[in-house]
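Lecture 7 notes: from sequence to structure.
We start with the chain below.
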Amino acid sequence: MQDHYSLVGKRILIAGGTRGIGRAISLRFARAGACVIANYVRDDTSAEKLKQDSVEEGLSLEIYRADLTSQKGLQSLNEFLGDASARLSGLVYCAATGVHRSVSELTIRHFDWVFSLNVRAFFELVKLLMPRFAESSAIVTISSRGATRAVPSYSLVGSSKGALEALSRHLAFELAPKGIRVNVLSPGSVLTDAWEVMPDSALRIAETIKRTPLGRLVTADEVAWAAQFLCSDASKGIIGHTLVIDGGSSIVE
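Predicted structure tokens for the same chain:
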């Protein structure tokens, strides 16, 4: 019997795939049989640790450093992927950055920096990879609750995620006839090192747990399982959807 959740035979690029949620997705996909390319830009230590772990498990996983906000980085990644015949079955866009300050403290430079990676780089990467996507391929973008909810000191990140979700829906409409389905995965609060730069992080985590029916934060592995579903053949009928995985916190006032 065919396993429609399997990723065997699929070659998938994970942008921002060596830390946090991206790392969990890279490992989950490789364990499900995919050939994974995990892209990153700065943290060599995390990238090498991911590579080491994948080698120990005998997984098909490569890492590649490239700055997706630069034309040089995009071209370098494209060359690494091989010639046009080297097809891709999917792209998961986890790459993101942020500045956690009040609006009065933010500058245009902050704005350009956040939107250049969180939105523009995704747009440029999809355009670049279009000739590579195989029939019945999948694109998944990683959003956050800040795309639809106001969160303190989160205006730039939240608005960029809102733009990312809107762009993903429009791409879903335009690319579906080409056999490419686009969806959004919106995790709730996940305990990663991203919390280290958030103001009052301990208090926010405690408040989130208190109002979450699940009684805890969702895990990076749980997000990765959802990402696997959206990139597998089991989700062929799902297009332009935002899948929320937050333990139920968004349904509670």
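Points to note: Helices lie at 20-31, 44-57, 71-80, 108-129, 155-175, 201-211, 220-231. The chain has one domain: 11-246.
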